[in-house]
Design brief:
Distance between the termini: 39 Å
Radius of gyration: 20 Å
Order of helices and strands: EEHHEHH
Shape: elongated
Oligomer: single chain
Largest sheet: 3 strands, antiparallel
């Protein structure tokens, strides 16, 4: 099963020397949806505990919050990785001419292996979930959100 989906940007030499570069970026894929569903379960179990005693159907609200968090993490990871993905797209390595964006497209088949942007995005997602779970467990979610800009 191909769990990962990517958008591929193709850059090519303006002098048509034959050099081109393809850059893959992470999309919302099955892996990320499974990660959001897996992260919603511990928060749901914590919410069933003593201080809150939320109803069982709050699982759907928590899952929706995890999907929103996943989208925000994707935006943050895109901004964080931009300097690294854009390197080598301005000047051709063969002839020194300018490179231009030849197009972007979705990888139609997907991939069974994660791209490094998928790994960075998943690491940020796990870190954010650990912070949120820690805040809910110890009751100091206000101190966590106060430190954010």
């Amino acid at each position: 099963m191909r769990l990962f989906s990517h958008t591929i940007a193709d850059y090519t030499c303006s002098q048509h020397c034959g050099y081109h570069r393809s850059i893959a970026a992470a999309n919302l894929s099955y892996f990320h949806l499974f990660a959001a569903a897996g992260a919603a379960i511990p928060l749901w179990i914590i919410s069933l505990g003593d201080p809150w005693r939320l109803p069982w159907y709050y699982l759907f609200c928590i899952l929706a919050g995890e999907l929103v968090l996943l989208i925000l993490v994707g935006l943050a990871a895109g901004l964080l990785l931009m300097p690294f993905t854009m390197r080598g797209t301005q000047v051709c390595k063969n002839c020194g001419a300018a490179m231009f964006l030849a197009g972007r497209h979705f990888d139609p088949l997907g991939s069974s292996k994660p791209h490094w942007s998928d790994i960075v995005m998943f690491a940020i997602f796990v870190a954010m979930n650990v912070m949120i779970s820690y805040g809910f467990m110890w009751g100091n979610i206000e101190s966590l959100t106060a430190s954010l800009p």
